[in-house]
Amino acid sequence: MAANPMTQFEVYRIGPEIKVGAFDISFTNASLFMVISSLAILIIFNLGSKKNSILPNKIQLLAELSYSFVSKMISDTAGSKAKPYFSFIFSLFMFVLFCNMFGMIPYTFTVTSHIIVTFVLAAFIFIGVTIIGFAKHGLGYLKLFVPSGVPIVLLPLIVIIEIISYLSRPISLSVRLFANMMAGHTMMKVFGGFVISLGIIGGWLPLSFSVALTGLEILVAFLQAYVFAILTCIYLNDALNLHH
Amino acid sequence: MIKKIFFQSIFFNFFIYKDVFGAESGGMPQLNPEFWISQIFWLTLTFGILYFVLSKLILPKISGNLELRRSQIQENIEAAEKQRKDSETKLQEFDEIIKKSKIEAKNIFKVAKDEALKDINLKKETLDKQIDQEIQKAEAEINALKENAPEKINKIAIETSSELVKTLIGADVNSSSISAIVDDLSKRNGGKYYDN
Question: Which candidate, A102, A118, A104, A114, places its Cα nearest to that of A33?
Fold first, then answer.
């Protein structure tokens, strides 16, 4: 069972089967790690914001550095108008980051390696950004699809390309995160399998590769959370400040 | 390169374990929709709670803490700036006081010097006067002595010559005749001895 690199992505029920109408909403291992990630975030940031001393302790420093990191990221990419959405982007970044990072612990489950999870997040962002765009600019938001300074002959083609690229945003956003996490974890599992199959003599090479991959995957876990959050900021920027 | 290794590894794995994919029928578990609804439900629930608690309780506290620290640091910087300015003005005052006192000291020195010089001059003058007076007195005495000297000499000359005459010739000579001779001589030769 351990040999198949895809078994680590299997979702299974923990506890009883819960059904609401026709829908199965049982508590699964995926749900467990969603809860663990959220709880970890809440505990860390609650501890980090409890005491306010002029010289912060380590956990307070961690919370405040994350706060200013996300705050700077938003103000750099989407400007000051994006301030009301700070909490959402902060939660999103932290949730994805913690899910990715918890997935790096052996025998855990990576929530973000499932297309349905990332797609729900991306679709929510896409719909939200579209609603914000139409609410701010009315039908003027459609100007997003008509770039200025394009020859009239090319305009129909450009508009079609723009619309396709806009509509593919949730897909690219969700597949990017999901594919990165799945590929990384599969690769680690495969190299882990090599260590066993090549034994004590030949197993050292894949083992060292596996160690290096762990470092790479931790980097990817952070980077993908960052990319997810920053792309959300960029989409938000398109909706808030119409540039085209 | 990593991609190549990835695909190669899957390929070789297939050779090593013949039952790798044979045991599974579905392939990717991600595409099995059995627990999709459950995942969506739990994602919405956990992320919703996370967002709610973070945005309502925790993030305002952190931003408040940051703001408080910033304002406190700002206040401290302002206080430090104020104290620096204060010390600068005090330093200037100190410099001015030193300058003033230097000038005062110079003035005092000048006045004292002037007074001392005046005193010295005064004393010098009185001393000069005294010296002059004494010189004049001495000169007067000398002059008096000078004036009396010929008469005395004449007298002595008369006496000695009368006595000389007496012892030489043993006869009294009229003193008046001797004095006439002496006077005559002194009048003739006086210029030699008393030519001032």
Answer: A102
Q: What is the sign, positive or negative, of the torsion defined by CA atoms of A51, A53, A57, A61?
A: positive
Q: Which of A27, A42, A182 sits opposite B53 (nearest CB)?
A: A42
CA–CA distance, A242 with A110 (Å, rounded to integer): 37
ipTM of this predicted complex? Answer: 0.91
pLDDT tens, residue by residue, B38-58:
999 999 999 999 999 999 999
Q: Residue A82 — φ and ψ, nearest 5°? A: -85, 5
Tell me: the pLDDT tens digits for B95-107? 999 999 999 999 9
Distances (CA, A) of A227 to A40, A65, A96, A110, A116: 22, 18, 10, 18, 18
Encode pLDDT of A116-143 as tens digits. 999 999 999 999 999 999 999 988 888 8
pTM (whole model) above 0.90 = no
Of chain A residues 136-195, which have a CB less than 8 A from chain B?
178, 182-183, 186-187, 190-191, 193-194
Domain span at residue B184 reads: 40-193
Q: Is residue B147 part of a domain?
A: yes
Interface test mutation site (partner A, options B45, B65, B66, B73, max chain A beta carbons within 10 A): B65
| Total domains, chain B | 1
Please give the Cα distance from A24 to B40 (Å, whole number): 11
Question: Quick check: is B3 in a domain?
Answer: no
